[in-house]
Amino acid sequence: MPGVNMCETTESGTGAGAASNPAVDRGVPAAPVERSLLDELVIANRVLFKHRVVDAFGHVSIRHDKDPERFLLARNMAPGLVTAEDIVEFHLDGTPVDAVGRSVYLERFIHGAIYRARPKVQAVVHSHAPAVVPFGVSASARLMPVWHMSGFLGLDTPVFEIRDVAGDATDLLIRSNRLGDALAASLGDACVVLMRGHGATVTGDSLRQAVFRAVYTQLNAELQLQAVQLGDVRYLTEGEVRTTTDSVGSQIDRAWNLWKCEVAN
Fold first, then answer.
1. Where along the chain do its domains lie?
2. If exposure means fewest CB atoms within 10 Å of the residue's CB, which of 62, 67, 172, 197 is most exposed?
């Protein structure tokens, strides 16, 4: 793992995704957590930054290994600068357990709502990956798998429209449990949901799977944007989606081990 960051991180708690005031803890003890879990969450943040899924904004969480009614997420800061000491524990309603006055992400409700709705989900990635955004705003083009690495997308990636829930004057951020629940409902049983004019949220049965899917969702979007310029795109079939999801999904550790080395140097 990298040592102390050479870049000083003093987040002000303002701006997109920030809390306007330091978070107020609920006043209950934090659950014990394995240091290895914290370290893996740090790696996930850095891998997502390295692969341009997130930049200064975006976040990744993991369900608590000792208490499924809690999750772990960094404080409000750029993902590429996260260390183990920056990880905060949350209840599924988004209330922090041990923020200790630190600012937290406004959109933590994305994570809590999905964990509530999908008990098997163990990790969530939210990003504003640029290549993905066009597929959330187009009325005709849908994000679909163009290669074997992204069969997990399925044939009908859902799109969340915040206007249907909160009108047409929001900042498009998921600032409440109500909006989080609506997003989780749009996600349904899928593993990726696009967010119109905003980005995407990706889930996984493990942290490594969620990161893998987030990286390859972005790459698929880039390839699809190139392919449609050539015309007559042939997407994966339903059968190919099932087969590639199983075969490629068994190789996630191969990618993770490479990515882990990349961000350790």
1. 35-264
2. 197
